[in-house]
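User: Zinc-binding dehydrogenase family oxidoreductase, Tetrahymena thermophila:
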Amino acid sequence: MEQQKKTMKALVLEEPKKPIVFKEIEIPTPKSGQVLVKVESAPINPSDLAFLQGHYSSNKGYPCVPGFEGSGVVISSGGGILGWSLVGKRVAIAAQTQWGTYAEYCVADANSVLPLPDEVSFNQGACTFVNPLTVIAMLQIVQEANVKTVVHSAAASALGKMMVRYFQDNGVQVINVVRRAEQVEILKKEGAQHILDSTQEDFDEKLKALCTSLNATIFFDAVAGELTGRVLRCMPNKSTVYVYGGLSLSGSVLDPSDLIFRKQTVTGFWLTEWLKNKNIVSLLFLLKKLKGLLLSQLKTDIQREACLEEGINAVKFYTSNMSKGKVVFKPQNRQEKQNE
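Assistant: Predicted structure for Zinc-binding dehydrogenase family oxidoreductase:
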């Protein structure tokens, strides 16, 4: 085990909706069932943006260190057989504690840590949980409903590109909804067959025709706002919307007649809650499947690395360039060592 320092560099959120601050704080001590991880990579995800803006449910109090996932090396355990077995290993992290991954060190529950194969880089490993597991979960929902075609908004996102690859390889077609013309080309490169730009005048007409011909009865919505109801109106009766994000920063707008007379339904999807309903055998099976797909169907595009000192500027950059790939914090790097 490496010699521990007493303090660490971190990004700290003092209270909701306030800018994150780069500062030096004490290195946390893991409790029983937890591990301390030296963080090598930590991505910015839409869920992180929502948390910074005060729009995401979490058990974190304030002040706290943001960052829900990352990768690194376990350097100590707070106790427990699983925790001690992880010391010294390269791991992917799902961090729900006060001390998230936007720091040199983070604390994670030992059962939320996944050893990484040697061939998986820290950058790829850092993107193991949020998007890949969400895509795997969504395919299970679709297969259990015996649905062969789905609609997906914000389809040029990292998750959207994964969905195209993973769903099509498993026999499910995706009607991809984007908001800019350049995003159409991004998805074509991924092999997407059905791509519609919601800013085009004939969007609703084309969407309704596709949903009808392909019997698309599930819609995974990452945008919310008026798009939720707009897409639902174009779908067959008894369709279901799973709202899993709110990129529009607006509540979903729906026509009550669609719910009353067409028997459409709207529900939410939260990966954390979905995983809670899985038994240990199911979770182990999921993680085994996940490890085998990280470098293929569920691979993440990385567009830029940033050190912690870049903090709010890195967040702003990602917010404006989300469809181009992930921005990944490298907590062990200092600003003067970064390449342009």
